[in-house]
Amino acid sequence: MPWDEDCQPIIREYHSTENNQDLRSLMLNDSLRSVKTQYAAFLDYDDVIFRDAYAWLIERLQNTGKNASFGLIYSTVFNLAENRIKQRQVFYDYGKDYQGFLTANHSPIHGLMLNMSKINLGEIEYFEDMKYMEDYYLTLQIFTETGTDWVSLQERKFIGDYFHYEGKIRL
After folding, report:
1. Residue 13 lies in a domain
2. What is the DSSP annotation of 50-83?
3. Does residue 12 lie in a domain region?
4. Domain count of the fold of the chain
5. CATH number, domain with residue 147
6. Residue range of the domain that includes 72
7. Longest CA–CA separation in the chain, Å
8. What tens digit of pLDDT does each residue of 54-67 get?
9. How many other C-beta atoms are found inside a 10 Å radius of the C-beta of residue 123?
10. Is the residue at 19 inside a domain?
11. What is the pTM of this model?
12. Which residues 6+ apart lie within 8 Å of 66 measured at CB?
């Protein structure tokens, strides 16, 4: 994937152990602490970001001065055997404000961008062996009612896909 010279992704390797087989919380929090730029976003193997997504999110953060901004994500079914998208639907289009976020975690982790200049990483706690809701636990410590760009959700800007795969390829 071509990346601008001054915008290379941070790719880190982690290895599970018998005592800690699920490293999602460690990977999420440790990677966030390694960010040296003003803005941070997350992307993993089952996520796709559209080409204009990060530019749009950065513009929102610059214009609002908030600690995080959002774009909407499609829920997409991709058939591996046929090598094609079978279904794309709007699923994560709820929770347009802080109360909605508290009630129902409304955004996959790759549907947001953080403004690191507005976040005190030293105040964020995490548990390396946390196996569920690690992203929600992180964002509960960052998002606030007035400090987060909730208006971005009302824009209904779709910035990517959350892929679900079907039809294993047989070798």
Report:
1. no
2. -TTHHHHHHHHHHHH--SEEE-EEEEEEEETTTT
3. no
4. 1
5. 3.90.550.10
6. 24-166
7. 52
8. 999 999 999 999 99
9. 8
10. no
11. 0.86
12. 60, 115, 118, 147, 148, 149
